[in-house]
Amino acid sequence: QGTVYPSGNHTGPSYVAAPFVIPDQSDSMLYLAFSEYFFQTSSFAYYTAGAFNITIAEETCSYFNISTEIFGSIIPEVREYSVTPYPVMLKLMATEIPIISLQQDSFTVEIQGSMEVFAVLPDSSTQSLFTINMAANTSIAPNIFDQKLMGSLCLNR
């Protein structure tokens, strides 16, 4: 079992490493196993380092054609604020340490976060439009298909 620490800080999280058993099989040359503890400490280290905070800037939003006009069709207050369509910037951030749990054939990631949406004004300044708090629970089932590691993703809620 491995532990992942935040860079420069070896005071780890308060997770307890639970023992786990690797099935006794001998039909393959290599077996690889990860414990839930490994994923929990990784999640803690990445959260502490700010790796779950993402800013989606104007270039990416314009690729997906996201603007204040699109949000204005959903949220009337945005339409009232922004008569002229402006590009938007999205700031996504985890508000709590993501929880990763392992099941027999998949693993589940529970993440709570927020998304702040900004209008990018002509002078390159930004104006906050709104913030959304969210919680997501996702299952990921890894499979090996044609000698490639693949995965299927399911948004549970």
TrEMBL record:
Coiled coil: none annotated. InterPro entries: Bactericidal_perm-incr_a/b_dom, BPI/LBP/Plunc, Lipid-bd_serum_glycop_C. GO terms for biological process: defense response to Gram-negative bacterium; innate immune response. Residues 24-157 form the Lipid-binding serum glycoprotein C-terminal domain. GO terms for cellular component: extracellular space. Monomer. Homodimer; disulfide-linked. This is Bactericidal permeability-increasing protein.
